[in-house]
Specification:
Length: 84
């Protein structure tokens, strides 16, 4: 908010109402998961452990990543990777 020169509550309102996210964490997790989905599509990452990718995007452990990924995509990370 300070980098944009606006009040925190205005930025929260923009993220929550303007972009349609429930809260800031949901917004951040969506972007992290999009990065992981793109990483899954890269041949160089075919054998990269899912935990490694989850940690690279900022998740602190596998459980919150798995929950967020399932909620976002309807599939577990392993299911998503195998189907693509």
């Amino acid at each position: 908010a300070s980098k944009l020169g606006c009040a925190e509550h205005h930025l929260r309102a923009l993220i929550n109402q303007g972009l349609g996210y429930r809260n800031f964490s949901t917004f951040i997790n969506h972007n992290r998961i999009e990065w992981v989905k793109k990483a899954f599509a890269e041949p160089d990452n075919a054998r990269t452990p899912i935990l490694t990718l989850a940690l690279e995007v900022g998740f602190s452990s596998i459980a919150p990543f798995n929950r967020a990924f399932l909620k976002e995509t309807g599939q577990t990370p392993s299911q998503y990777r195998d189907s693509n």
